[in-house]
Amino acid sequence: MALSSRILACGPGWRVRDVICSSGPHDPAFEERHDGACIAAVTGGTFRYRSSHGAAVLAPGALLLGNDGHCFECSHEHGVGDRCLSFRLAPEFLDMVVAGVPGARCSSFSVPRLPPHERLLPLIAAVEAARDDGDAGAWEELALRMAGAVAQMLNEGKRGIAVPGARDERRISTALRHIEARLDEHLSIAELSKVAAMSPYHFLRTFRVLVGVTPHQFILQARMRRAAVFLRRTSDNVSAIAFSAGFGDLSTFNRRFQRIFGSSPSAYRARTQ
Predict the structure, then answer these.
(1) Is 160 part of any domain?
(2) Contact (CB, 8 A) for 162 and 202
């Protein structure tokens, strides 16, 4: 079995890998064991997955589910190769997320996969974009969102998300002010949730309900807005502006700026000054 795997990011209780397999119909399947709970987004190819909770054919858009310590096999009877973004979650990390999902009680998976679903499309597109863009800052949030989405879909029919009250509004407002004051610093979900005195998943879910975007999206937009203002008001070079706005990589900043504003930072400056 030809398998390559690289770690894209990791944090307390989670890590994400880009996994590429080139096995085909003539390659034998080997029994493996999940090291942590596994949620893997299939982004290319097809394969057959067998675990203690059943077997399924996985295709792009599906989520492979595996329980910590359980054995599994992957085989490729019908074609060559696949690619997945694999989230490995410590049991306590998954427990924390499940505790924040209304109606969810069990943090172990009873099915081998979630099939492709339109509700999963935005999330899977986001993880593919983070992989392709090298967006290291997105992965902590995406790990929480991935675990939360699975918990929600496995507990359909339960009561919905409660509307945040005044207490949660105050907590999220505190986090927003913290972001505004430290926009040029590394801001993790773990740090922001502590500022808000909330669990990371509850913070992420409540922030998205109240603000309308996720914390990572809000931070990126705020940084991009700050950079655009600096480009208009100062003569500082583009790299200095990118770093002072909180972007650690100039090529990533240029690419995002082009996507949002429709021109390079230099062209934007020339057009607006």
Answers:
(1) no
(2) no
Verify that 44 and 142 share a domain, yes or no. yes
Full domain range(s) for residue 124:
3-153
Same domain, 99 and 20: yes
Per-residue burial over 20-41, b if 16 or more Cβ lie within 10 Å, else e, is: bbebeeeeebeeeebebbbbbb
User: pLDDT digit string (tens) for 179-202?
Assistant: 989 988 999 999 999 999 999 999
Q: Give the H or E element holding residue 262.
A: none
CATH of the domain at 109: 2.60.120.280
Render pLDDT for 132-177 as a digit per residue (tens, 0 to 9): 888 888 999 999 999 999 999 998 744 445 678 889 989 999 999 8
- In eight-state DSSP terms, residue 8 is E
